[in-house]
């Protein structure tokens, strides 16, 4: 698959096809279990750190005397630092070696997590979290890029399934570990132990990567599209900054101005990429990548999936802890069966993909997700502020099944045609889309919650659960659209 896709790329695309004098890239070396788990450690660490920090925000505010806006910055600057340079991190891995970028990002992530652990005030903590996110943007794109460059066929399906399981399971792991550490009777501020956990995990992952991580890169020219990097960075900042901070700041004029500038900047970036592609340059995001039907349609599906999931996770945390008065540990444990089911079924989907194909799994996942989310939303509507933890947790198990059949197979279908020369750019673009979509989902969910609270005469708990139920119904509708999009995927990508 990889070879045929590369040979069909246009000859003037130096980013997608090595020069004539360069030797052909070697066959995929494969990833053993140890190497694969080491590669996935970057994804695990980045997601665990993000979800655990979200749980710790109230304790940070109380300990450092931070305002509500400053507390939100602890989470949002990490997401901004993570999302904005992600494509650049993937492209640098293509050019200079994915192992080098992985190790550099992991070292920075660990050091800046230590800085967050020892932060004497909220300003230092916010800066440390921003730098931690930038470090994550260097290491995380190398995960999927290394899988793409090192595996084929059934081995790739298995690796992608574990990739999806890690992404979903890490969210629950971070929430549960964060809840445990915040509840433990430890001396000093409990939130510091949450960031200290990232330091310990980072040291272990760095040591494992030094011994086991393979080195892959794209052959060809080592030139970097600096103008394209600047345009894309500005476009992502114009989108992500108001999306992450607009709600907390009351949507000032500058937020709307940036949102209006974002599509203009994205259009300028894409025109520049086409200009480089038609000339003699090497674009940051190779345009032939979007000629692959599975990748182009898959980005739309990723936007649907991640925006809905981002809205749900935000409203779940706020509704259960603020609206219903649950503790962080209570909220995390109710969500734990969902995450464990997601983890288990994601691994299982790697065995099903070679037999049934990605398209069928995606369609089935979307239908299951839509049906179970609708049922769960109905239950939340009926129970209101008396929401039963056991019933809610049991219904979410079925939602986890649908989510597992959507996430991993989608990634597998998207990268099936991607040549190794574009693996880093493809990984960075996909993960940037996922991060931006989650931020957009959170912003929309915040607006929905604000409208529900201001326009309802019911008790606060009822308003919160109503907003959560509406969000789940919208998520169910997105799941149906997701299933329809899966039917449009090219049939030749029906199996890995």
Topology:
Layout (H helix, E strand, L loop, with lengths): L1 H6 L25 H32 L3 H16 L2 H11 L1 H20 L4 H18 L1 H10 L2 H31 L7 H22 L13 H24 L3 H26 L14 H31 L4 H29 L1 H26 L5 H27 L7 H32 L5 H29 L8
Describe the structure in your own words.
This protein is mainly alpha-helical. The protein has two domains: 33-210, MFS general substrate transporter like domains (Growth Hormone, Chain: A), CATH 1.20.1250.20; 285-496, Growth Hormone, Chain: A, CATH 1.20.1250. It is built from 17 helices and no strands. Mean pLDDT is 83; it is low at 1-25.
Features:
single chain, 496 residues, mainly alpha, Growth Hormone, Chain: A, 2 domains, 79% helix, 0% strand, globular, disordered N terminus
Give a quick summary of the entry:
By secondary structure, the chain is an all-alpha fold. 79% of the residues lie in helices and 0% in strands.
Helix content: over 70%
How large a portion of the residues is in β-strands, by DSSP E? under 5%
Q: Give the topology string: H per helix, E per strand.
A: HHHHHHHHHHHHHHHHH
Oligomer: single chain
């Amino acid at each position: 698959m990889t070879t045929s896709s590369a040979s069909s790329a246009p000859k003037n695309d130096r980013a997608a096809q090595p020069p004539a004098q360069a030797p052909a890239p070697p066959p995929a070396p494969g990833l053993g279990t140890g190497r694969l788990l080491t590669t996935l450690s970057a994804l695990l660490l980045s997601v665990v750190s993000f979800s655990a920090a979200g749980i710790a925000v109230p304790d940070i505010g109380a300990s450092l005397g931070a305002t509500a806006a400053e507390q939100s910055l602890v989470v949002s600057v990490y997401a901004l630092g993570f999302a904005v340079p992600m494509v650049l991190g993937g492209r640098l891995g293509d050019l200079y070696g994915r192992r080098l970028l992985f190790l550099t990002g992991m070292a920075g992530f660990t050091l800046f997590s230590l800085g967050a652990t020892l932060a004497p005030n909220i300003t230092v903590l916010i800066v440390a979290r921003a730098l931690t996110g930038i470090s994550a943007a260097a290491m995380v794109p190398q995960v999927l890029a290394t899988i793409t460059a090192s595996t084929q066929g059934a081995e790739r399906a298995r690796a992608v399934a574990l990739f999806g399981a890690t992404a979903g399971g890490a969210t629950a792991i971070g929430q549960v570990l964060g809840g445990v550490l915040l509840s433990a009777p430890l001396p000093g501020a409990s939130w510091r132990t949450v960031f200290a956990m990232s330091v310990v995990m980072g040291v272990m992952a760095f040591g494992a990567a030094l011994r086991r991580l393979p080195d892959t890169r794209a052959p060809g020219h080592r030139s970097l599209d600096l103008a394209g990097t600047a345009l894309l960075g500005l476009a992502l900042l114009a989108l992500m900054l108001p999306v992450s901070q607009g709600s907390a700041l009351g949507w000032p004029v500058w937020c709307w101005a940036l949102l209006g500038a974002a599509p203009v900047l994205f259009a300028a970036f894409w025109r520049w990429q086409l200009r480089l592609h038609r000339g003699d340059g090497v674009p940051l995001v190779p345009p032939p990548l979007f000629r692959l039907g599975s990748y182009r349609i898959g980005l739309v599906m990723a936007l649907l999936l991640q925006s809905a999931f981002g809205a749900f996770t935000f409203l779940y945390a706020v509704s259960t802890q603020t609206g219903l008065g649950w503790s962080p540990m209570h909220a995390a444990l109710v969500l734990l069966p969902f995450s464990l089911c997601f983890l288990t079924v994601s691994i299982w989907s790697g065995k099903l993909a070679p037999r049934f194909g990605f398209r069928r799994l995606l369609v089935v996942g979307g239908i299951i997700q839509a049906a179970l989310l609708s049922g769960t939303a109905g239950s939340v509507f009926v129970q209101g502020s008396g929401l039963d933890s056991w019933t809610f947790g049991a219904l979410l198990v079925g939602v986890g099944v649908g989510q597992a059949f959507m996430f991993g197979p989608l990634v597998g279908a998207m990268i099936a045609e991607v040549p190794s020369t574009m693996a880093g750019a493809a990984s960075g673009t996909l993960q940037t889309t996922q991060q931006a979509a989650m931020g957009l989902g959170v912003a929309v969910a915040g607006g929905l919650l604000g409208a529900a609270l201001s326009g309802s005469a019911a008790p606060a708990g009822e308003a919160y659960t109503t907003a959560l139920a509406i969000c789940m119904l919208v998520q169910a509708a997105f799941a149906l659209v997701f299933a329809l999009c899966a039917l449009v995927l090219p049939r030749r990508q029906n199996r890995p």
